[in-house]
Amino acid sequence: METLRLVLLLIHILGFAALFGGLVVQAREPRKSVNAAMRDGAGTAFLTGLLLVGVLESGDGDVNHTKLGVKFAIGLIILVLVMANMRKPGIPQGLYLGLTALTVVNIGVAVLWSPAHT
Known about the structure:
Blueprint: H1 2-24, H2 36-58, H3 65-84, H4 93-112
Helix pairs in contact: 1-2, 1-4, 2-3, 3-4
């Protein structure tokens, strides 16, 4: 079960890396849009996050449901915003900055909050 958790965690991190990379690559562009990396990264991170919760729940350790709830809420907001704006030719600067901030906050919650399991 530990191997499955680590593989899912790796894929989860790669999903957030794709999402963040898709945002950063547009930093100097005057017109921002939702690209494939953002779409695939947000979906991958969200899905593997859900699978990770299932693996953690089936284990022996305690699960920090508050942390996971916060990460779920932020991840769901990111996913909805990305999917809702996927086909638009451009997105407002505020939405771009909001997606970037939410992504960084979600990563920060994962790294800085106490571990999800003990």
